């Protein structure tokens, strides 16, 4: 790994990135990695200050981490389950830095409940945040990207999008709805990639693998049986950076997992500031 630093003249100099779910975990890591390459990063989540969530990490923490290292970042608190918050988010981001060049759809609300017990209220919330919000945010940023004939949209998916295989005893109970959401976001990504290909806009989905984030800890996803699969958060941050910085005609319409993606291009993840 290379020595971590902010390069204000990096490959993303002059670009504005919007990263959702950026108060902790994968979103925080992606925001930091993009800032390291000179992007101006707008971070958003529901948790701005300590005490607003039972989980560690806040938007203030993320932007402080970037700014202390010499990068440029701001945050906008927003609840992505609300259309008015999504619209305000994009408008306020434009006021701060200008049109959004890079959209990272990372925010998620997840409940692991067996299908027969799954309440519609929670199903609607998961679909709103994990599927409709990425689509709506894409609608909001695409006009500027089309005008510029450039842009990148990356949605964070999961191995849960893959169909379960026998023996079913090994499948996680209650993961069907989460899998539905991630499968939908993958099909959305490839479909949108085809629609905006002529405008030089890249659209991709990528899965991080099992990463030791606060959210993963809450759901108890790392166990004796799964701990061998844990991968560093730097993998997904690096993969996202590489996706948004490469030729959009070649790097679009892909559904990838972070570690194999890095191996395909012979890449090692950078340390994060």
Topology:
Layout lengths: L15 E5 L4 H12 L3 E6 L13 H10 L3 E6 L5 H15 L4 E4 L14 H29 L2 E6 L19 H21 L4 E7 L6 H5 L14 H13 L9 E3 H7 L9
Parallel strand pairs: 1-2, 1-4, 2-3, 4-5, 5-6, 6-7
Helix pairs in contact: 1-2, 1-7, 3-4, 4-5, 7-8
Low-confidence stretches: none
Helix content: 40-55%
In total, the number of strands is 7
CATH topology: Rossmann fold
Number of domains as seen in the coordinates: 1
In N-to-C order, the SSE pattern is: EHEHEHEHEHEHHEH
Radius of gyration: 18 Å
List keywords for this structure.
single chain, 273 residues, alpha/beta, Rossmann fold, 7-stranded parallel β-sheet, 8 helices, 7 strands
Characterise this structure.
- The chain has helices at residues 25-36, 59-68, 83-97, 120-148, 176-196, 214-218, 233-245, 258-264, and strands at 16-20, 40-45, 72-77, 102-105, 151-156, 201-207, 255-257.
- With 273 residues, it is an alpha/beta fold.
- The chain has one domain (16-264): NAD(P)-binding Rossmann-like Domain (Rossmann fold).
- It has a seven-stranded parallel beta sheet, sandwiched between helices.
- The longest helix is centred in the middle third of the chain and has 29 residues, at 120-148.
- It is globular and about 50 Å long.
- The mean pLDDT is 92.
